[in-house]
Design brief:
Elements (H helix, E strand, L loop, with lengths): L43 H18 L6 E6 L1 H13 L5 E5 L2 H13 L5 E5 L16 E5 L1 E2 L4 E2 L14 E4 L16 E5 L10 E6 L1 H9 L13 E2 L2 E2 L14 H17 L1 H22 L3 E3 L11 E6 L2 H4 L3 H18 L14 E5 L6 H25 L1
Parallel strand pairs: 2-3, 2-4, 4-7, 7-8
Antiparallel strand pairs: 1-9, 5-6, 8-9, 10-11, 12-13, 13-14
């Protein structure tokens, strides 16, 4: 077998996981020294930090002043589930999905909530469904950015401003890297461990005035566990949106989120974060444009994510393999990079087509992605040589 020469330059930070994602540049545990450890989150110091996290979130994401922002348990999943179980059922719902997490919300609504009037608009990995078929007089549930497919909605133009239903948007891989059109969104959810590289277990729930009105005028037919309850006596529990969380938050994680928010503010806020993610994605656009073995999973350039970049194999020999063969090839390639310490956790999501998924969010340095590219070619060549040798 021909000996393949390894590239000389290595990424300074090889963390390219799509969640939890890389910490912000320059991060160290020293950033957490001000954490209110051993203190109650209900004490003045704890509540003030939670309030600061909410207000910085509003400032950086440019959330309208009349929208509520709450910190909730169980990451983005918890935030989405709270919205689905608390808000749906008042009218018919259109479920829009084109990757695994969106499909998961479809399953919850159809098989768990068992709503009678549900329409599904689904597309395979790499494409968007026909959004013109969605009826916004009904409630609509969708992901803004498909984390496991690398496909996002390009903007909110498909959503009418004057609508009767609510729009419930899972924006966990979009918030802080893409500009969300809050005028078109009634519920927005995300988690700390994505674009800003915070620690896991905490989610954010953002509600429009229309969503609050629904909560206060509609009572679901099913019982709600305490952890999902957003109202009491028919009124919104305002404390949730002022730092009084439903269950005990980790003040260490809160401190880490504050550190990430303050870093984001220091570099120029949302515009700077979007620009960093766009620059990172451009690295792969150029690379894929010249590659003989790798392509974007997302078919339409207008819908390609600038965070969770999903790549598929276009090399004829690899593409000719069956699904198990392609999966084994991808596993070998990813393992080789892991062993070299140049890229961690970049395999495609378990339900997605075999390939690579590389996080390009704002906490990743462009120089590290540039350094990764020759290693991708090296790992592919090594796996291709092994494939031929085994034939």
């Amino acid at each position: 077998m021909t000996t393949l020469t390894k590239p000389g330059l290595r990424p300074a930070n090889p963390n390219f996981s799509s969640g939890p994602c890389a910490k912000r540049p320059g991060w160290s545990a020293e950033a957490l020294k001000g954490a209110a450890l051993g203190r109650s989150h209900r004490a003045k110091i704890g509540k003030s930090k939670l309030e600061q996290a909410i207000e910085l979130t509003r400032e950086i994401l440019k959330v309208p002043a009349n929208y509520r922002i709450g910190i909730v348990p169980a990451s983005d999943t918890g935030a989405v589930e709270m919205a689905l179980w608390s808000l749906l059922g008042e009218r018919g719902v259109d479920m829009v999905a084109w990757e695994s997490f969106g499909s998961g919300w479809v399953t919850d609504v159809v098989k768990q909530l068992k709503l009678a009037d549900v329409r599904k608009f689904e597309a395979g990995y790499g494409q968007l469904p026909d959004l013109t078929q969605v009826d916004f007089d009904r409630d609509v549930v969708f992901t803004w950015n498909g984390t496991t497919s690398g496909v996002r909605v390009p903007n909110g133009d498909f959503i009418p401003t004057n609508r009767k239903g609510l729009t419930i948007c899972d924006a966990t891989s979009a918030a802080f890297a893409q500009k969300l059109d809050f005028e078109k969104l009634d519920v927005v959810t995300f988690s700390w461990q994505k674009v800003l590289g915070g620690e896991g277990a905490h989610g954010m729930l953002i509600l429009s005035p229309r969503a609050v009105e629904r909560l206060e005028t509609y009572k679901p037919a099913w019982p709600l566990p305490k952890i999902f309850r957003l109202t009491s006596g028919g009124k919104l529990i305002e404390g949730i949106f002022k730092g009084e969380t439903i269950n005990t938050p980790s003040m260490l994680c809160v401190e880490d989120y504050l550190d990430a928010l303050l870093w984001a503010k220091s570099i120029g806020g949302l515009d700077a974060l979007v620009a960093r993610a766009d620059a990172n994605t451009a690295v792969f656009d150029r690379f894929v444009g010249k590659s003989s073995w790798l392509g974007h999973l997302a078919v339409d350039p207008a819908t390609r994510s600038n965070t969770s970049v999903c790549l598929s194999f276009t090399d004829p020999d690899v593409a000719a393999l069956d699904a198990d063969g392609q999966a084994a090839f991808a596993k070998g390639l990813v393992s080789a990079l892991d062993k070299e310490g140049v890229a961690y956790d970049i395999g495609s999501y378990r339900d997605a087509p075999p390939g690579l998924r590389i996080w390009c969010g704002a906490t990743v340095e462009t120089a590290d992605l540039e350094a990764l590219l020759p290693w991708l070619d090296w790992a592919f060549a090594a796996q291709k040589a092994s494939l031929k040798a085994a034939a």
